[in-house]
Structures are given as C-alpha cells and as structure tokens.
Amino acid sequence: MARSSDSKFTDWFYEIDRNLLWCVLGLTALGVLAMITAGSSEASRKGLVWYFYFWKAVPFYFAGMFTFIVASFLNKKWILNISWFNVAVCFLLLLVTLKWPDPVLLAEKHAARWVRLPILGSVMPSDLMKPGSIMITAWFLSYLKDTVGGDIFTSKAAWRWDRWPLYLAFFAAATGIIFQHPDVGTFLLYFAVFVAMIFIAGLPIWILPALFVTAGAIFAFAFFTMTHIHSRVLAMLGHGAQTAGPTQTDFAKQSIQHGGLLGSGDDSFVKQSLPDSHTDFVFAAIVEDYGAIIGAILILVFLYVLRRLALDANRARDKFVFYAICGTFALFGTQVSINLLSTLNLFAPKGMTLPFISYGGSSFIAFCLLFGMVIALVREDKWKN
How far apart are CA 359 and CA 276, in angstroms? Predict the structure, then answer.
C-alpha cells in the first residue's frame, strides 16, 4: 500500500500508531492459537468436542476485530458518545445481575457477574464497561481542569453536586455491585485504575494514604467475610487447609516447568488437568506448549504495548487524550500483572483474563473497543491543527 495512494484507508494506516496496531493483531493471533490448543484441553477435560471453546470464540473474534477497526476511525465526539452509551447500557446490565444473573454460570462459578442476552449469550457487564469508564473518567478530569483550574480535588467549585459528588456516587454504585457479585478482583482493578488516573491528574499526595487505607479496609472485609477470598489468600501464603490434591496454581507451575525452554508440543499433558487453562491460566498452557522463550517474548510484547502507550501519552496535546491513554495504560498493565502473578502463585487467583489471549468474549471485545478508541484519539490528536 503506497503512501502516495489517495484513500481514507491509506491516510488512516499511515497516521495511526502502527506499532500498537501490530501488537494488538499479534496478541489476538496468539490468543486464537491458544484457544485451539488450551481450549481443546479444557474441552476434553469436560468431555466436550475438542473445538468447543474455539468455535464459541470465533464470533467474538470477528466482532472484536470489527469493533477494533471501526473504533480506530472514530473522532473524539463519536468516542465520547459511544462511551456514554457503553457505560449506561453496562450499568443497567449490572443492575440486572442483582435480580436475574445467568443461572448456568451462577451455579458453575458461584458468582452473579454474568447476564444472558438473546443471540449474544452470556456477557459480563463489568468487563464490557471498562472502555467507557476510562473514557468518561478521562473526559471528567479534563472537564474539571478546564472549568475549575489546576485544583480539581480540594477546590469548592469542584465539589458542586454535579461534579465530584455525582461522579463518585455513580462510581461507588457500579463498583459496589461488582464487589457483591462477588468479584473482588474486578473491583480492585477498577479501584486501581481510578486511583492511577486521579493521581496523574494531580491528586494531592496527602490523600493517597487515605485511599490505601480504604483499599486495605475493603480487602480485609472481603478476607474475613468471603470464604473463597479467605481460602485463596491462605493457600497462596501456604497456610491453607490440606486438600485432596494439587491446587490450580500447583498445576499451573507444573505446566510451566514441563514446558521447559522450547515447549512440550504434542507431549503436553499437565494442562489437561489444569482447570481454566483457556482463561485464567492460559499463560501456563502457552508456556507448556511452546516453551519459556515464547512466554518471555509474550511478556516483552506486553511491556512494549505499555511503552507505546506511555510514548503516546507523553506526546498528547489534549488533556482528555492524555488521561484516556494513561487510564488504558493502568488498566492493561494492572490486568496483565494480576493474571501473570496469579499464574505464578505470587497473587491470589482472581479470575482475571489475560488481555487479547484468554477465552472470554466480553473481555476481548472490551479491549478491542478500548484500543481502537486509543488509536483513534492518538491519530486525531497527532494530526489535528
């Protein structure tokens, strides 16, 4: 495709952050491959046909890639309109989970975080709401900067009812529903991204200890009131009750060890006993199949994505674009870290997907939408007059 070619697609291709584009496409391709290998093991373990999870994921791959490309052509106005719609619809679906969660997944996962929709099947509103929440938070922070000035946290004008109080009330309502699903991992993810974004926006340093105390109090409440959180934390620390066999993280570590440097290929067998090898522990399954070298390269790709986001944020001229990219950096980096640390038993398992890699239509489409929006914002901010 020659640069001299006069077409909208050519302009788009040469104006966007192509390095970020290739990373997203590369991660998605690896995710498809992992779904064929790890997904077949999970399906066989449950007595299903080997292509069960891959076949279920195919419509989401097409929908996600379509969403990613279309979103990358949008302008700031359309991105904000879609973000408001995204947040509004997902919040309504969160309310639906309070009364009518997906009964099948409620029985299987013991959590009410999914709803079943016609045609789409089971979706996870808290996953789908991530791109919209980041964009709306970025808009809100830039709006406060423009209307209130530099002091957007302690200024009296910033605490008018339709500013911080309204935003915090909505944030508390949405994350409160997520917390009681129970989905402590996603709750902590939203909280961490929120803290990162307001810190970048100039949060006074003396407020940070209060936020850490709040997070600690919430975690302590979950630890002492939620049995699964209590048992997972104790198991991670090596103080859990003795079980009849290896835990998920034990299988994950064995799977990584069995893969060695170059992978086990057709001789992979540990992942066949690893629950959620296609979702939460997909990294372990990839390493067993293709080796630690491929696993290290995958981690380097994740780090490179973060580097591209950091560079794009540093070059941003629009405050909204800056905050949106920083929020994306915080979300992507935190979710990747939680997933990998859980796999290595350095963090309590949280049911957190590995972006673009794990099986999960809601997560995949959400990240496709988010990164498509980021690519569009970077392009518009870079080339606007």
Answer: 9
pLDDT tens digits along 312-351: 999 999 999 999 999 999 999 999 999 999 888 887 776 7
Amino acid residing at 380: E
User: What gap in Å lies between CA 261 and CA 380, rounded to an integer?
Assistant: 43
Q: Which residues of 267-278 are buried (b: 16+ CB within 10 A; e: fewer)?
A: ebebbbbbebbb
Task: Give buried/exposed letters for 333-371 (b at 16+ CB in 10 A, else e).
Answer: bbbbebbbbbbebebbbbbbbbbbbbbbbbbbbbbbbbb
**CA atoms of 353 and 363, how far apart (whole Å):** 7
* Cβ–Cβ < 8 Å for 193, 327: yes
CA 67 to each of CA 26, 162, 169, 364: distance values in angstroms, whole numbers, following the listed order? 16, 32, 30, 10
Whether the pLDDT of residue 148 is over 70: the answer is: yes
CA nearest to 366, candidates 84, 124, 106, 92 = 124
Tokens of 161: 């009812």
Cα–Cα distance, 4 to 182 (Å, whole number): 54
Mean pLDDT of 91-106: 89
d(CA 30, CA 51): 16
Q: Which two tokens stand for residue 1?
A: 């495709």
Angle CA 105–269–271, to nearest 5? 30
Q: Which of 16, 14, 27 is nearest to 305 (CA)?
A: 27
